[in-house]
Backbone:
């Protein structure tokens, strides 16, 4: 489940969550990611200030590090692979500063959970190896969150994943799942923590095959003797090296940023769906801080079906609880009354109002997708504009797509996914690779595509690229028009009405002449507004 292959890649893939400017005292600097890495959050990192770094004192009273060291439980081992990573951490103390600053929200909770299970506290450092303590980390293997659960393993360990919520990024739920998973692997592989960690990274089946291969050849079956994928061979030494540096930072020329030995957050029951902007205001915290404590929430509000809890900074938990008690469930989100129009569908209405079809069905007591013109729907509505919810899935995706850049000579187009599309089919049509296509859009090759979904593509297919370019040229007399198909329309009739060619309409919308268009469907047109 390791997101990064080695510490060098970690260093060049670091993402700054909020709070870095307080650490560095300097502005953030743009930094581009490798094409092979797909991340679900802004690709920025903090400029390192060595003067501030020297100010941190490990021996401060109330520091978590002594407690963590006392709970170490890995066996002693010497291996040159470990020393390679020890040397790397020694040369990059600013990396440790950044990930510890980010992980300071979560470390106390993780250490406490490990102690309750009597597990080695070196495991509290595993999210540094897995995700650099980035709760929004997302890999091309579809692993997400601090502990980098892939979808199937996450579901097996009870981590719900839907439009509103992804439990793989939920701090408390994913930590509980990860520790349960590690405990089971530890029991499965003869109480050997190194084998358990290797299995966590490569899978129990893969590790078993390597063990059987060595056993048949009469060779040792300990971790250090197995033939494993390169990533897994490096995975365990990375964690051991990190634990050694934390155990004696002074001996390694490193000063660790203190982490308070007290709870950072409280888990507060909210009992119903709540707008996250409203929740942040009630807790008197920035909404970004709320998202960083509750990264499992994909949208502007919590999931209507739960979990109905929020993590709130411990010093703000009382005021939040008091204000929450004064609101009925109906007051925790805003509502819009919407009258169904001709051409409407539940999918279109849900997309327009930033909610899900399931929510519309539940709120309005609908058994299926059938709605009728003139019908009134009640729709939960965000109180703030999209950009206010900066860490929602939509806003993180938009930042990823806006940062994306193609090869020299390529141009950006926006592609709307159609029924039957796949990454392979879209990539082939536009002359790009699947890896590039998924990276531009913050996705993994095995992610599911949905009709109507918008993708960014950088293509050298000039027929497609040139069709889009007028929309981004403010001096052009050609403007982009979103046209909604009406009863009786055809491609030819629409083309004639706007004085464009049928072939242009087909190219602009990636449809063939034989495709059926239906009332309410949206088409993109580029129209000469001078009328010439």
Residues:
């Amino acid at each position: 489940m390791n997101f990064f292959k080695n510490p060098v890649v970690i260093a060049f893939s670091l993402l700054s969550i909020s709070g870095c400017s307080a650490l560095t005292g300097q502005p953030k600097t743009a930094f581009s990611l490798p094409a092979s890495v797909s991340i679900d959050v802004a690709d920025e990192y903090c400029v390192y200030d060595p003067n501030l770094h020297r100010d941190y004192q490990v021996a401060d009273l109330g520091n978590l590090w002594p407690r963590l060291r006392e709970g170490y439980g890995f066996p002693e081992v010497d291996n040159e692979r470990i020393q390679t990573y020890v040397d790397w951490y020694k040369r990059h103390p600013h990396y440790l500063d950044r990930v510890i600053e980010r992980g300071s929200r979560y470390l106390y909770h993780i250490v406490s959970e490990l102690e309750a299970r009597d597990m080695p506290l070196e495991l509290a450092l595993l999210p540094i190896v897995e995700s650099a303590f980035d709760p929004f980390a997302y890999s091309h293997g579809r692993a997400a969150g601090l502990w980098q659960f892939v979808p199937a393993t996450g579901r097996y360990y009870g981590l719900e994943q839907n439009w509103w919520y992804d439990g793989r990024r939920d701090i408390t739920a994913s930590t509980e799942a990860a520790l349960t998973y590690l405990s089971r692997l530890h029991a499965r592989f003869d109480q050997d923590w190194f084998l358990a960690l290797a299995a966590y990274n490569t899978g129990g089946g893969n590790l078993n095959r390597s063990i059987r291969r060595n056993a048949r050849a009469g060779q040792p079956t300990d971790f250090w003797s197995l033939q494993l994928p390169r990533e897994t061979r490096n995975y365990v030494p990375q964690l051991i090296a990190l634990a050694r540096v934390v155990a004696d930072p002074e001996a390694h020329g490193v000063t660790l940023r203190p982490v308070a030995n007290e709870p950072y957050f409280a888990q507060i029951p909210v009992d119903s769906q709540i707008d996250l902007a409203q929740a942040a205001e009630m807790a008197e915290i920035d909404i970004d801080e709320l998202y960083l404590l509750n990264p499992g929430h994909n949208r502007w509000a919590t999931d209507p079906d739960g979990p109905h809890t929020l993590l709130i900074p411990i010093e703000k938990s009382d005021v939040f609880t008091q204000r929450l008690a004064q609101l009925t469930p109906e007051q925790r989100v805003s509502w819009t009354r919407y009258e169904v129009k001709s051409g409407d569908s539940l999918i279109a209405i849900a997309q327009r109002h930033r909610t899900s079809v399931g929510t519309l069905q539940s709120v309005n007591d609908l058994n299926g997708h059938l709605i009728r013109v003139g019908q009134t729907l009640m729709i939960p509505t965000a109180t703030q504009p999209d950009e206010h919810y900066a860490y929602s899935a939509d806003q993180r995706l938009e930042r990823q797509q806006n940062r994306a850049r193609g090869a020299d000579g390529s141009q950006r187009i926006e592609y709307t996914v159609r029924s039957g599309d796949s990454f392979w089919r879209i990539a082939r049509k536009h002359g790009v690779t699947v890896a590039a296509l998924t990276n531009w859009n913050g996705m993994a090759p095995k992610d599911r595509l949905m009709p109507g979904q918008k993708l960014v593509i950088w293509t050298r297919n000039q027929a497609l690229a040139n069709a889009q370019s007028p929309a981004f040229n403010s001096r052009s007399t050609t403007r982009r028009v979103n046209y909604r198909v009406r009863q009786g329309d055809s491609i030819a009739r629409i083309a004639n009405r706007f004085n464009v060619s049928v072939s242009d309409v087909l190219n602009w919308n990636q449809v063939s002449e034989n495709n059926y268009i239906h009332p309410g469907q949206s088409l993109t047109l580029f129209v000469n507004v001078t009328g010439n």
Notes: The chain has four domains: 7-11+53-252, 265-331, 334-382, 393-528. Residues 2-61, 467-477 have pLDDT under 50 and may be disordered. Strands lie at 29-30, 44-45, 265-269, 309-313, 334-339, 376-381, 411-416, 454-459, 478-484, 522-528. The first strand starts at residue 29 and ends at 30.
